[in-house]
Amino acid sequence: MSYVFVVDTDRHPLNPVHPGRARILLSSGKAAVLKRYPFTIVLKTSVEQPLLTPLRLKLDPGSNTTGIALVNDQSGKEHPMQEHNQPHHPTSLKGRPHSVI
Q1: In terms of CB atoms within 10 Å, which of 40, 63, 89, 94 comes out highest?
Q2: Spans of biased composition, class Basic and acidic residues (predicted)?
């Protein structure tokens, strides 16, 4: 499940929220859409002292795509908060000479 990124009025990043919570904030007029990809909302109020949890960026280089995930370090579980698969450029991989040791 992908979470929704949140920034306050001063464009300071806050903790990502569940999509249901983001929908409530949007429908009640407390937030607006900032970007569609990655989906990010901007709050209409500023947050004085936000409590931020540390997130870790994990990369998984595969043969056809590279997986990118944000993982919450505080929970101790490897549940990704945001996932993305970046395909490799096919012309950059084809026709390359393999190095022989």
Answers
A1: 40
A2: 75-86
